[in-house]
């Protein structure tokens, strides 16, 4: 049984290590959007290249995050976490020195692999290291500090872009890694799971990532209308079908399909897809809208979006308590509708927009919507499956949210008629942005309708979230003892280990 106490020096070092590691990925997911217009100008990149700057990272992260947790259980959680941090830092260095958009995109894909190793590993280290009496508080502190990192991200990113330059958005990860790795090696105990058996579902992970990548390419390049785009789209669908077949037939799949036998789990993942597709599109486009159309600096654009995350940090725990009392159905219906209203309010943000009159009301309403829905969403995911599979359910839900965001970033410019050079023209981008916000609001209304029709109050004997404070806008929090493939049948009957 793990016996490190949170108040001990070792406990504080472990917490620092996990916060540093997760903050690298958290910061990266929020600061890059603010830097996109400057990246485009400096590298002479079109809109498709900017889409890939976001999506290359998300494809590998979403496709491999479940496998990353499995590797930690098998080979050592500290070892895989450290590998992830080093990998992420090296890829960040490549991003920072990239001479052109092609190299930047390739380096971003490598970054996503590192993120898939360190993101589940940071939570797993806490679960495996701390005494059970301190574990909940440790997870809460880890989640809270991670939320602070998410809040600081856009502000810090904007300051870096306007100051030393956008490359420092990526180079910042290198000193963080240089601090994190030696602390981890010296103070964090190694841990694994002796009950893990069988092989890794590498084929499933590759097929899942390939399906996402190919479909994303087809959506981004669809305007070209070439044979290559058509072939890529067909290949992406084929890879998706092959992924389902492989997961159905493997004895130890990365994503066991029988978990979707729970109607509640399936329904709440549909809500997740709608919500995080809308959020992914919003945060990708709004940072550009504020700079290209409203004339904000990168720092101004990053700061403008800060109230959304601050509201989540301040109120997400209370939202979870309210949902515990009244059930998740109302919050999961009202939350997306508030978010939709916030996005429609963004239609007022045009040239020379006033922050107090135009931007702030939209951001506040959106933030209140996120506060209302994120904690109940996580709780419903955990409650919809057996306690022994709560970590797996959370991992699948987290990956689904990231996949939804990357598909939205790929599809929205196509759906709204945003040309390759649209972000260079205030009028062209503003017009397409208005259509995009309407599409995102529609997705949120669909999510609210699904929640209203399907979500029910869970029973008392279910797992409750440990991450009560959350600030990320890219995905719901990871929960459960581990984020990885299914354990042995024996564990499924015995329940999760301490």
TrEMBL record:
It comes from Streptomyces aurantiogriseus. The keyword Transmembrane applies. Residues 14-459 form the Major facilitator superfamily (MFS) profile domain. InterPro entries: EmrB-like (IPR004638), MFS (IPR011701), MFS_dom (IPR020846), MFS_trans_sf (IPR036259). One of its GO terms (biological process) is response to antibiotic. The keyword Transferase does not apply. Residues 460-498 are annotated as: Disordered. GO terms for molecular function: transmembrane transporter activity. It comes from the Bacteria. CDD domains: MFS_MMR_MDR_like (cd17321). The chain crosses the membrane at residues 12-36, 48-68, 80-99, 105-126, 138-160, 166-188, 200-220, 226-246, 267-288, 294-317, 329-347, 359-387, 399-420, 432-455. PROSITE patterns: MFS. It holds the Pfam family MFS_1. This is MFS transporter. It is a multi-pass membrane protein. Residues 460-469 have a biased composition (Basic and acidic residues). Keywords: Antibiotic resistance, Cell membrane, Membrane, Transmembrane, Transmembrane helix, Transport.
């Amino acid at each position: 049984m793990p016996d490190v106490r949170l108040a001990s020096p070792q406990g504080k070092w472990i917490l620092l290590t996990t916060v540093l590691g997760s903050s690298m990925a958290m910061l990266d997911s929020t600061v890059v959007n603010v830097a996109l217009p400057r990246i485009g100008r400096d590298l002479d990149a079109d809109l498709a290249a900017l889409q890939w700057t976001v999506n290359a990272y998300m494809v590998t992260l979403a496709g491999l995050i479940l496998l990353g947790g499995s590797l930690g259980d098998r080979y050592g959680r500290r070892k895989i976490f450290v590998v992830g941090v080093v990998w992420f830092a090296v890829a960040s260095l490549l991003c920072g020195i990239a001479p052109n958009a092609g190299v930047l995109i390739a380096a971003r894909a490598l970054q996503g692999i590192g993120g898939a190793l360190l993101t589940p590993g940071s939570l797993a280290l806490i679960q495996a290291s701390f005494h059970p009496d301190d574990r909940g508080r440790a997870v809460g502190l880890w989640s809270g500090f991670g939320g602070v990192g998410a809040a600081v991200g856009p502000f810090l990113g904007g300051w870096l872009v306007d100051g030393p330059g956008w490359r420092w958005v990526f180079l910042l990860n290198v000193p963080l890694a240089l601090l994190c790795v030696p602390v981890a090696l010296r103070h964090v105990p190694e841990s694994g799971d002796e009950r893990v058996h069988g092989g890794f579902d590498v084929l499933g992970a590759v097929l899942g990532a390939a399906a996402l990548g190919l479909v994303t390419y087809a959506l981004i390049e669809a305007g070209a209308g070439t044979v290559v785009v058509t072939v890529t789209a067909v290949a992406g669908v084929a890879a998706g079908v092959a992924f389902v077949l492989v997961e159905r037939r493997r004895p130890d799949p990365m994503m066991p399909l029988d978990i979707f036998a729970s109607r509640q789990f399936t329904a709440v993942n549909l809500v997740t897809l709608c919500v995080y597709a809308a959020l992914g599109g919003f945060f990708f486009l709004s940072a550009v809208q504020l700079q290209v159309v409203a004339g904000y600096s990168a720092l101004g654009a990053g700061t403008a979006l800060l109230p959304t995350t601050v509201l989540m940090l301040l109120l997400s725990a209370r939202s979870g308590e309210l949902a515990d009392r009244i059930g998740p159905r109302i919050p999961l219906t009202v939350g997306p509708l508030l978010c939709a209203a916030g996005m429609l309010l963004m239609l007022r943000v045009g040239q020379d927009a006033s922050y107090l009159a135009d931007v702030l009301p939209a951001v506040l309403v959106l933030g209140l919507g996120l506060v209302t829905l994120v904690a109940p969403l996580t709780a419903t995911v955990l409650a919809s499956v057996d306690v022994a599979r709560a970590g797996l359910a959370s991992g699948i839900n987290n990956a689904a949210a990231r996949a939804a965001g990357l598909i939205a970033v790929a599809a929205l410019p196509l759906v709204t008629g945003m040309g390759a050079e649209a972000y260079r023209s205030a009028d062209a981008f503003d017009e397409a942005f208005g259509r995009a916000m309407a599409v995102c609001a529609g997705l949120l209304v669909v999510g609210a309708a699904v929640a209203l029709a399907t979500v029910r109050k869970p029973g008392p004997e279910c797992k409750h979230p440990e991450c009560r404070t959350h600030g990320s806008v890219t995905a719901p929090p990871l929960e459960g003892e581990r984020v990885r493939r299914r354990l042995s049948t024996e564990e499924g009957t015995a329940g999760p280990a301490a």
